[in-house]
Specification:
2 copies of one chain form a homodimer. By secondary structure, the first copy, chain A, is of the alpha+beta class. Chain A folds into 3 domains: about 130 residues, OB fold (Dihydrolipoamide Acetyltransferase, E2P) (Beta Barrel), CATH 2.40.50.140; about 300 residues, Bira Bifunctional Protein, Domain 2 (BirA Bifunctional Protein, domain 2), CATH 3.30.930; about 140 residues, Gyrase A, domain 2 (2-Layer Sandwich). Chain A contains 17 helices and 26 strands. In chain A, the strands form 6 sheets. In chain A, strands 9-12-13-24-23-22-19-14 form an 8-stranded mixed sheet, with helices on both faces. In chain A, helix 4 crosses helix 6 and helix 13 runs antiparallel to helix 15. The first copy, chain A, is globular and about 100 Å long. At the A-B interface, helix 3, helix 4, strand 9, strand 10 and strand 11 of A face strand 2, helix 3, helix 4, strand 9 and strand 10 of B. Strand 25 of chain A pairs antiparallel with strand 11 of chain B. Chains A, B: This is Aminoacyl-transfer RNA synthetases class-II family profile domain-containing protein.
């Protein structure tokens, strides 16, 4: 049935419209189901035609596909052929096919035929066994005439629906994501974890990064806040007698968006009572091994390497080293430069020597030039970088602000760095203060140089996986100007104020808090921090001590934790947990650099969904409902 | 290891504190694992002791339990006995047990013994086969001395952790919820549905109920909005070539909270391309049948009853009738009162006669009195209610504002309502206008009377399940003063502006829009609307026509749908879907009236989480970050 309408309007200036209806035959099969056993049978399929090739007025060739998951099938060959005795529906169908817009959704009634043997030998190799002969076509929507694309068309984020439709990797990412979520749930439920949903309308807390506020109509500045993680709620669950909790939780962070950040993201959130850090790490290892095995088909494990924070910082200048490239370690020049060491200065360096046949002094020089251009020295951030044996060493040391050069030092430095042959790139930098944060300056230079070397094929890129637990983080870090810094102390919690200190460091909490290690663990895969967790403080007294006496939190902020202290004080068992970035996990599994490639509708770097146009400007009237106005 | 601290602080005024550590033995078993086969073995368990009964200085009895899911085990019997040759650790453990706070989490090292045969015959029946003899106790937290409760203690929502710990039904609800989510996912994934996460930071739209706004730091009133449902995104997914989508989606509604509403809730969201309404209803029937079978162990089906909106409104005065109580239908008095019918007035009524042995005229009178007190007549909302044969009929008609009384009418009315014996409660009311909304006034009275009758045991309460699809809703409803009403027309979409009209009604869209039926379906279980869905408009032209010409949406609002129109215009297949209230589903399965009883951390009727104290007043400084201030 067609329902013609007087056309007083139209889409984008066209006025020829009629509303089709949805009276179409139900599908008898999917494209994937069509095979030899259906030869000579009639079938109904729902889907889309490929381009139509006209071999004359009476003979058209095309293909037909649907998008069924989990295994989208190869398109089927379609033949539409009519002659005089053909029934009228077939003739109409033939005509329809000839004029159909390529992306029209259709219901297709067709007969399954054995493929005619092809005349050309290379085509005969094709494993098409059957083809469809068109009997009747039901077009199910009109399609904009402006919509034209080829397999090479690249769509912007504004047209995410067309990106999704045409980008194979994106669809694969979504399927992998769905399957991985399933696998996680199966594993955790098999281990007696209970899935519990925790509120998203939470409370503003001084926990870490910035939060999004959600004003209420109560006015007076009364707001919910979107949670950065379900941390508090899951600790409450532990005290509520739920021994094992998990959730694929939505989390929010209102901070500047780096390449790998989204204002909203998903994390696999886990917490176990009566558990130690080891229990959690063991569990996550099993989970990751199972995912890699069942979904990627890659055997890993059985155990992941573990390294303390100070060790990764000392050797790689980062708390998330890519252990696939674990040579080129950073070395201290303490003994090589005793006069500087005596003056209390810490000089460190590393050398790089490529491992591909491409690598020679010329290539190294080019790499170094480019690297120095992209990582300019500036003020106090000077560094020394040169090719060993190039004769430019002296100049490099002077430019790098280390004018303490004489022959003995150079020999000592090269000895300490194990420079055995000319052509190695040497990078040297002074380090100030003790290790804190995610990277030293030299660590960032090292990572940048290695990435550049892989890009220029002077270092062999690797596609395997290196797993690492980084442990023994400092419990506190020097305070940055983060407005969410909770207390008046000159340091703040490295992760959050609920992380337990390592037991044997508790006695120095007050005297030398910056030396206290946290029972925190980060999981790093291929240099990417996939998530982190910790044993939590489960004793009210210790929690209060840290908030009040160590972090020196003012009374009004302390009050915001009253409920948590009461919960801990009511017989809360020891507990530990972890949160794994689910988007990042999928990105790592897909080998993608950006989590944007594994999210159906990501925000861009400005936090905007350019397809639907969010965020948008809200009317003053609407703001007033919430007792607010623009300042 | 204990780590004593100089006590300069404390919890709630107490100052005796020391931090315990978490060096405790790993559990070898769970409580559920302990049985005959472990007799004479040593085990380590994590959990909690019950109350300790002291049978003298050297002999204590207690019990031990943990909270393991999915099957929390019966507590084990515990005996602690010491004499002179007992080792020191056992003596210390005995002492510890004697003074331990009941809710202390502990690691317990114990031996499994065969139960000593009890002397009292009734105790001998107990199926305890083994008991634990205490060897060593590791207390793992201190517990507030103020924490005392018995099995009868009822905690307020502020102490949700203690509610969760002590309320069996609440824990069961959470377990059932987790299992049901699992079952839904398994079923849908088995039917090739892809789980896709859609954004929660969405855009303000004129879709329906009020939205929560999320201001951004861009200022200038730029806000995200939290979604009321993933409706638009799932339609975009259909156009993106994802044939079957599902998600357990978080949704938000900033509206006054009724008993059964929460500002945030979970819905099982489903959408299928190339699908008709029937396809979706069939799928959901299969899903519900499977859940009832696998989780509740109740066989239902194989098909659910279907009824059009007008039929349920006519017969029950509601669009969500409880079909377990499907007699006591509402009947029209059109023919019984021809003089009123001629005057264009619609009078309707129903009778109630109890089905329990309790029911007699006295009981009915009492029921009616109470019912009338709770449902007072007021102004235009008068109604007539009396006991047939009580002699008070005339008075009731006068009080009800229907002063058109004479003997013939009463006989006619009772004839039409099938009043065959005295003692029946008769309720009569005039209806104004055509059917719209969820209930007629008489329908509300009917539901109230039946509920009251069940409560007073005059109507047999039923614990079975009645499933009903209500279909053929009106596409538009008269406009209320809802500020989110999208257009300037005197009516608005009954559900949302994307619902497809029934094909054969399209031609009257412009002439008599209020008569157009929607291809919408609601699933009703036991009088509770569990969710609803529809075939969506998949043609850009029809969608634009409805927004622009039928709803008369102003241009600036129309623009907010540009992206959707473009998506429909790019070859979007026909599609239909549904959203089921997941919280309500669990509440129905648990036989609970309120969804609060099946949510781990619900908000109260004021939208507050009184445990953590959200929402809270935010500092002006923080509002300024978002370019806002209080008005």
């Amino acid at each position: 049935m067609k329902c013609d309408f007087p056309p007083p309007f139209g889409i984008k200036g066209t006025y020829n419209l009629q509303f089709t209806t949805v009276e179409f035959p139900a599908a008898t099969h999917r494209v994937a189901d069509i095979g030899k056993e259906l030869i000579d049978k009639q079938v109904v399929l729902h889907g889309y035609f490929g381009t139509v090739r006209k071999a004359g007025k009476f003979l058209y060739f095309s293909s037909f596909h649907d998008y069924y998951y989990p295994n989208p099938a190869r398109p089927l060959k379609v033949v539409s052929y009519i002659d005089t005795p053909s029934p009228q529906t077939t003739k109409t169908a033939h005509q329809t096919l000839g004029s159909l817009h390529q992306f029209t959704p259709v219901a297709l009634r067709a007969s399954v035929y054995k493929c005619a043997p092809s005349k050309s030998p290379e085509k005969r190799k094709s494993d098409d066994e059957v083809e469809l002969r068109v009997k009747e076509i039901f077009p199910l929507n009109s399609v904009s005439e402006n919509l034209i694309y080829t397999p090479k068309t690249v769509f912007p984020l504004e047209k995410r629906h067309l990106q999704l439709r045409t980008t194979k990797a994106l669809c694969e990412a979504l399927r992998l994501r769905s399957r991985t979520a399933s696998e996680c749930r199966k594993f955790l439920e098999g281990n007696d974890f209970l899935e519990v949903e925790t509120p998203l309308l939470f409370k503003s807390t001084p926990e870490g990064a910035r939060e999004f506020l959600v004003p209420t109509r109560k006015g007076n500045g009364t707001c919910y806040a979107l949670p950065q993680s379900p941390q508090q709620y899951k600790q409450i669950l532990m005290a509520s007698g739920i021994p094992r909790y998990y959730q694929l939780a939505k989390c929010f962070r209102d901070e500047d968006l780096r390449a790998d950040r989204q204002p909203e993201f998903t994390q696999l959130d886990i917490e176990m009572s009566f558990a130690t850090s080891n229990d959690v790490m063991d569990l996550v290892e099993q989970l990751i091994i199972r995912i890699w095995d069942n979904i990627l088909g890659v055997r890993i494990g059985p155990r992941f390497q573990r390294a303390p924070y100070w060790w990764t910082m000392k050797n790689y200048g980062t708390d998330k080293p890519d252990m696939r490239y674990s040579n080129h370690r950073i070395k201290s020049l303490h003994e090589a430069l005793p006069h500087l060491a005596k003056a209390g200065r810490s000089i460190e360096g590393f050398i790089f020597y490529g491992n591909t046949p491409n690598y020679n002094t010329d290539q190294a020089t080019e790499l170094l030039e480019e690297f120095k251009r992209e990582n300019p020295s500036a003020g106090g951030d000077n560094y020394v970088a040169y090719i060993a044996g190039s004769g430019k060493e002296t100049q490099a040391y002077i430019e790098g602000g280390m004018e303490l050069w004489h022959e003995v030092d150079l020999a000592n430095i090269h000895g300490a760095l194990w420079v055995h042959r000319p052509g190695a790139i040497v990078v040297i930098k002074e380090r100030h203060g003790y290790y804190s944060g995610g990277n030293t300056k030299l660590g960032l230079l090292r990572t940048a140089l290695l990435n550049k070397a892989v890009e220029k094929r002077l270092l062999r890129g690797r596609s395997d996986y290196a797993f690492l637990w980084v442990v023994d983080f400092p419990l506190f870090s020097p305070t940055t100007d983060d407005p969410s810094q909770p207390g008046r102390a000159p340091f703040s919690p490295t992760h959050h104020p609920f992380t337990a200190p390592i037991a044997e460091d508790i006695h120095i909490l007050r005297s030398t808090p910056h030396r206290v290690r946290a029972e925190h663990y980060d999981l790093v895969i291929n240099g990417i921090e996939l998530g982190g967790g910790s044993r939590r403080i489960h004793e009210a007294a210790l929690q209060k001590y840290i908030l009040e006496k160590v972090l020196k939190m003012p009374q009004e902020k302390l009050q915001q934790f009253d409920h948590l202290l009461e919960v801990l004080d009511s017989g809360c068992p020891p507990h530990a947990g972890i949160a794994l970035g689910f988007d990042r996990l999928i990105a790592v599994m897909m080998g993608r650099d950006s989590i944007r490639d594994v999210i159906a509708f990501p925000k861009n770097t400005k936090g905007a969904d350019v397809m639907v146009g969010s965020p948008s400007v809200v009317l003053d009237k609407e703001l007033q409902t919430y007792g607010l106005r623009r300042s």
